[in-house]
Amino acid sequence: MSQQPLALPLPELAAQFLLRPGIAFLNHGSFGACPRPVFEAYQSWQRELEAQPVEFLGRRIGGLLAQARADLGAYLGAAADDLAFLPNATHAVNVVARALELAPGDEVLGTDHEYGAVERAWRFVCARRGARYLSAPIPLPIEGPDQVSEALWSAVTPRTRIIVVSHITSPTALTFPVTEICHRAREAGILTLVDGAHAPGQIELDLPALRADFYAGNCHKWLCAPKGAGFLYARREAQPLLKPLVVSWGWQPEAPGRSPFVDYFGWAGTADPAAYLSVPAAIEYQRERRWPAVRAACRALLAEARARVAALAGQGQICPDSPAWWVQMAAVPLPPCDPARLKARLWEEYAVEVPIVVWRGRPLVRISVQAYTTPSDIDRLVAGLRALL
Fold first, then answer.
1. Is the pTM of the predicted complex or chain greater than 0.90?
2. Domain span at residue 371?
3. Are both 275 and 321 inside the same structural domain?
């Protein structure tokens, strides 16, 4: 059966999210929002843990996490043993950055659209290894994927050891052509790490087909899992490069034949695994509700919002109106303003939660549309911008 786009608003879905009534929440991209059925599964796991902690953590947790990884792997097109649960994508990036044995003079190449925490992680490591972190400029507006890949590749040198690139960028909300970049890097013998914090749940994924060596993702953003559910995917041949950030029982596993990669991150000490174990519930929640159709409806509403804000701001768009570039999150340029003050006033005076980011000194409003977003939320954003700009 074909999946036809649903019409927004979607009150039957909106009512299932735990967001405070009366606010226009247009910042799903920062931390996501969890629907009630998934949150209840999360709390159920927590209660089960507390009912018999030794049985749960001492005897059952390995099998439970293996099943959750298998479900996530099926969703991402990846083998379960090529995935490790971690609290978030930034944590996953740090695993790769700390483990990679950079030598003095080696170069780590990113773009000027990367998430600030990711840049900081690599600058921190490079400063201690005598390596260099380089940020390739990708100018706006963007007209085509070759513009991105060629601008990035122009900064590659014989010293480039790893390319670090966002799948969907945080400040500019652009979907980068990571498949082309990763394939080209593989042919050149350069490692790749894709920051996929915004991708799972917002776009369809087949991780092995990307040919990235490492992929860091979040399930608590667009997949709508509970907070603290992230993962690291590592290509089988690249796994020996990794070591755990926290050395625990998995460092020298007692059971032979298991994947060291899984053991490194399977048990780092007592922690609450409920967010990881709830990822299958989030996958099933979206599957049961025909999420590709929900996504299409969200994109239609975002297209309207994007056009209205651009007409109001008079600054043009940063990329074409195509799902190849954006789906449920888009950034629109604003005229010169005080970004922090504008963001605060939108919240304080209009109850609109939306980020005003600054990229290369240029203010952008980054709008997220999820199943709970209504046309009146967009009306309130436009009214606030009209009054405050």
1. yes
2. 11-31+290-388
3. no
